[in-house]
From TrEMBL:
Catalyzes the synthesis of GMP from XMP. Homodimer. GO terms for molecular function: GMP synthase (glutamine-hydrolyzing) activity. It comes from Halomonas alkaliantarctica. Residues 2-194 form the GMPS ATP-PPase domain. The chain holds residues 207 to 525 of 525 of the full protein. This is GMP synthase [glutamine-hydrolyzing]. It catalyses: XMP + L-glutamine + ATP + H2O = GMP + L-glutamate + AMP + diphosphate + 2 H(+). ATP binds at S29, G30, G31, V32, D33, S34, S35. Its EC number is 6.3.5.2. Pathway: Purine metabolism; GMP biosynthesis; GMP from XMP (L-Gln route): step 1/1. Keywords: ATP-binding, Glutamine amidotransferase, GMP biosynthesis, Ligase, Nucleotide-binding, Purine biosynthesis. It is an enzyme of class 6 (ligase).
Length: 319
């Protein structure tokens, strides 16, 4: 049996042999897989690695700054941050359909990434955070959501157009092994054991049309929910938890005034494989605290609901 340290040593050697003195490009999302690849490649080839981090305006609260803090500041990884919020929100304007929104976000991501990549001279390799289950999934099905997921996250369209060779050091590993590698490489525990976050981000957690105001409210509500989950020890007991923005207005009272504002839904699930899931039986006291905080701290929210739908038939995400 291999230890994380041995796997890292082995992959570092392999990457050095494959890459030589050439340059490697990596799309860094802040998710576990691409983060571990960044740390691993940095160890293997240092400044021959350039990461591109696209801030699409659909990330969680402070996420972009955290990615830059961890990689650029602490680890000294070369990361180019592209602030593309206006571009993404502009392209999404008026679009209400979930799958159309996914396509727009995925295609825009590829455009932005492609443009950044073309500015960097002498790149021969594209690194990807493909892990073993991705390899199986894409072999098993070329259609459906699994494919959509990977085509966005692992930048499926790029190698052909850019004629880059692939570097995929996690191809033979399962998620729990990837996490152990991440810790061994010195990534923060909270980053390595973070709940999964979909490629289209808040774009599929704002129902219908995506607007900046909605995204800002959702980011704050989500941050409160996650903060309370962590404080109560429930973050580790749930597999995925998040807030959803419902573009529905509801009446409330604050002091002697009437409030007519938006609705936030909370979703938390327990699952092993994300194919089926049970809604998490969070304590009432916790839900009460989260709900009170969201309504009291966020002017734009007048009501909070908790989603008690299991998968199937409901999906984990609302769109
Ligand atoms: P559903 O909603 O299908 O979600 O029950 C199952 C898991 O997949 C994630 N998910 C996505 N991930 N791009 C992604 O990268 C997507 O378009 C996408 N849709 C759903 C979801 O967050 C959950 O972990």
């Amino acid at each position: 049996l291999w230890t994380p340290a041995q796997i890292i040593e082995d992959q570092v050697q392999r990457v050095r042999e494959q890459v030589g003195d050439r340059h490697v490009l990596l799309g860094l999302s802040g998710g576990v897989d691409s983060s571990v690849v960044a740390a691993l490649l940095h160890k293997a080839i240092g400044t021959q690695l350039t990461c591109v981090f696209v801030d699409n305006g659909l990330l969680r609260k402070a996420e972009g700054d955290q990615v830059m803090e961890t990689f650029a500041k602490h680890m000294g990884v070369k990361v180019i941050r592209v602030d593309a919020e206006d571009l993404f929100l502009g392209k999404l304007k008026g679009e209400k359909d979930p799958e159309a929104k996914r396509k727009i976000i995925g295609n825009t991501f590829i455009d932005v990434f492609d443009e950044e990549a073309s500015k960097i001279d002498g790149v021969d390799f594209l690194a990807q955070g493909t892990i073993y289950p991705d390899v199986i999934e894409s072999a098993a099905s070329k259609t459906g959501k699994a494919h959509v997921i990977k085509s966005h996250h692992n930048v499926g369209g790029l190698p052909e157009t850019m004629k880059l060779k692939l570097v995929e050091p996690l191809r033979e590993l399962f998620k729990d092994e990837v996490r152990k590698l991440g810790l061994e490489l010195g990534l923060p525990y909270d980053m390595v054991y973070r709940h999964p976050f979909p490629g289209p981000g808040l774009g599929v957690r704002i129902l219908g049309e995506v607007k900046k105001d909605y995204a800002d409210i959702l980011r704050d509500a989500d941050a409160i929910f996650i903060e309370e989950l962590r404080a109560s020890g429930w973050y580790e007991k749930t597999s995925q938890a998040f807030a959803v923005f419902l573009p529905v207005k509801s009446v409330g009272v604050v002091g002697d005034g009437r409030r007519y504002e938006w609705v936030i839904a909370l979703r938390a699930v327990e699952t092993i494989d994300f194919m089926t899931a049970r809604w998490a039986h969070l304590p009432y006291e916790l839900l009460e605290k989260v709900s009170n905080r969201i309504i009291n701290e966020l002017e734009g929210v007048s009501r909070v609901t908790y989603d008690v739908s299991s998968k199937p038939p409901a999906t984990i995400e609302w769109e």
